[in-house]
Amino acid sequence: MRCSPTAGAGPAPRRLRLERVWRVLGRPTQASVCLERTKSAPFGLFGGGAGGPGRVTVTAPDGVERELTSKGSFAAAAGAVIALRAPGSGGYGPAGERDPARLRDDVVNGYVSAESAALDYGERAALACPHCPPTSSDAQVTSMNATDLCYTPATELIPLIRAKKLSPVELTEAVLARIERLDPKLNAFCTLTADLARAAARRAEDAVMKGGALSPLHGVPFSIKDLALTAGIRTMSGSPIFQHRVPGTDAPFVRRLKEAGGVMLGKTTTPEFGWKALGDSPVTGITRNPWNTGMTSGGSSAGAGVAAAAGFGPLHQGSDGAGSIRIPSAFCGIFGHKPSYGRVPMWPTSNTDSASHTGPMTRTVADAALMLSVIAGPDLSDRTALDAPPADYVARLDEGVMGLRIAWSPDLGGLRVDPEVAAVARQAALAFQGLGAAVEEVTPAFADTREIIRCMWNVHEAGNFGEYLAEFRDRMDPGLVAAIEDGLRYSGAEYVAMRARKLAYWDSVRPLFEKYDLLLSPTVSVAAFDVGRLNPKGWPDHPWDWFDWASFSYPFNFTGQPASTVPAGFTPGGMPVGLQIVGRPWADLTVLQASRAFEQARPWASTATAGRTESAGRSIGRPGSPLLHGSRC
Predict the structure, then answer these.
(1) What is the three-class DSSP state of 566?
(2) How far apart are CA 461 and CA 169, in angstroms?
(3) What is the dihedral of CA 598, 604, 606, 612, to 10 degrees?
(4) In the 8-state DSSP scheme, what is residue 89?
(5) Catalytic residue ranges
(6) Tens digit of each residue's pLDDT (9 = 90 or more) over 262-299
């Protein structure tokens, strides 16, 4: 047992930081104890004093308690109770012991704002630094609680960290605590790397205190979808086949996020190999929608969508082979961007005929622009990556849509759409008229892709994973098994012929984008539906075919165009609806600018994060935001 109590971050002195209790079962045991007292500089919203000593006691079965020395071995009889209590110091002690000089030093050094010192330590603290008036950011940090920190965008967290008004450790601990409290109901993370995150946060804090150059995402938490390789961290791909795989290298975008100073929280859930647009897998179970836990999260970037909506940090990576960023983003009420094909390099390159894209899933467009600016750009590991450097997505984000010609299609020329979803998406599309763009309703003459997606999707599943059926069939997702078996019935000649139709599909799409800068449509035909179903009620059942309700997204995987989804509103039942924004090839900046203009006109983050209530274990965030309906868990 080892305890290192350090400086705390609250007004109460010697606040309990850790308590662990063990009972000795079966037979007597021999153990050892080593207690260390560590002093560190205060860092946090309220300063903090040096750490207090820990204490270990052994209570014998007869009730006699003895305190152990700081170091050494001891024996404990069967039935004995061993208790470790580690107080973390915080604040400056009782009112009569508050030292104005210490407060003044901490205010000057940026450990605590003058306003929060006065608020939490009384009048003497206000006199400690009369020449330090509170700034707006001081007031912002002072008013933040842990939930606020978890919902704060990365673009706001970064300046607070750089100004020493927010500790990366404090931020990371707040997010980890929220995950620990809420994720048992949601199941967004399949592998939480809490210890690694804390270590990265401590390194980030040390760099801040030393005053050196800081990276773009310094101290900001992020997550990675479990389809992506992560060095030294389990990568299951949602499958029992790779349940114990630990790669030796990072995918390029993982490496870039780490090099940019981000704090990796862990891996988020995906259905097996990302084969469907839902959120369950044989090894991780069901990932649930935070707006209603009886509903699906969507997929295949299921955990990423839930994590963003639930306030599990600001930045989340998703991948999209047929809608897997946009569908869960729409179902969970967040922003998601599928970049142009090749904008973000992949390794290993996905063996799906250039269908898979990697991109950001966030609560704000600015956070997505920031994240994309870090992960985009060529890499020698991916010869299919675009060789052009990314545009300045952050600096040019607010240029708007004035003068753009925008097409709006409620059904892409004949797709089935739930009326509730269609009505919300239409009203959202019309909002662009008030932003200076010309919006016209169109009926696209796109070629029929129904046979193309079903053939190519299943042939890819068969080619990539069919070899595992003999050993793992009974442990795999039955729908994936059925899709693989369907894919095995196609000949090579049939696949090549279908691929030719896919390549020619752009010729039917190109005329619309020769006339219009952007295309708007619903992101998905339906809102999130009941967990445990492959297709919504009222839609045809099928062993593997889920494409009917998700046909707005995959056409733009075929063409490689950039496409985002923005929160457009809610159904009468309270579930989010997304509006898809599709750009010309390589026009990621235009899509992000349009998304940002819509966000400013109809802000969704304030709706999704208004309030503070987490009463009775029902609300994961705030009133009017995602709810955990306990009766439906």
Answers:
(1) strand
(2) 42
(3) -170
(4) B
(5) 225, 300, 324
(6) 999 999 999 999 999 999 999 999 999 999 999 999 99
Q: Dig out the tokens for 370 from the structure.
A: 């920031």
| Identity of the residue numbered 55 | R
Residues listed for the chain: 633
Tell me if residue 564 falls in helix, strand or coil.
Answer: strand
Q: H helices within 352-410, ranges in order? A: 365-375
Q: What is the dihedral of CA 599, 600, 601, 607, to 10 degrees?
A: 60
Asked if 513 and 505 count as a contact pair (C-beta separation under 8 A), the reply is no
| Paired tokens of 455 | 């053939």
Q: The whole model's pTM is what?
A: 0.78
Pairing of strands 292-296, 288-289: antiparallel
3-state helix, strand, coil in the chain (%, to 5): 40, 20, 45
Domains, the chain, in order of start with CATH, read 2-88 (no CATH), 169-632 (3.90.1300.10)
pLDDT exceeds cutoff 80 at 444? yes
Say whether pLDDT at 616 is over 60.
no
Report the pLDDT value the prediction gives residue 252, as an integer from 0 to 100.
Answer: 98
In this structure, is the dihedral angle defined by the CA atoms of residues 134, 140, 143 and 145, taken in order, positive or negative? negative
Would strands 518-522 and 405-408 be described as parallel, antiparallel, or unpaired?
Answer: parallel
The region of weakest confidence among 51-65, 135-149, 174-188, 311-325 is: 135-149
- Whole-number Å distance between alpha carbons of 89 and 92: 9
Contact 200, 241 (CB under 8 A): no
Cβ burial 93-117 (10 Å sphere, 16+ → b, else e) = beeeebebebbbbbbeeebbbbbbb
Report how far residue 273's alpha carbon sits from residue 558's, in angstroms, rounded to the nearest whole number: 19
Residue located via tokens 């894919």: 487
Backbone angles phi, psi at 183, to 5 degrees: -70, -25
**CA atoms of 444 and 409, how far apart (whole Å):** 7
Alpha helices, DSSP H, located in 316-437 = 326-332, 365-375, 419-430
Q: Are strands 2-3 and 29-35 parallel, antiparallel or unpaired?
A: parallel
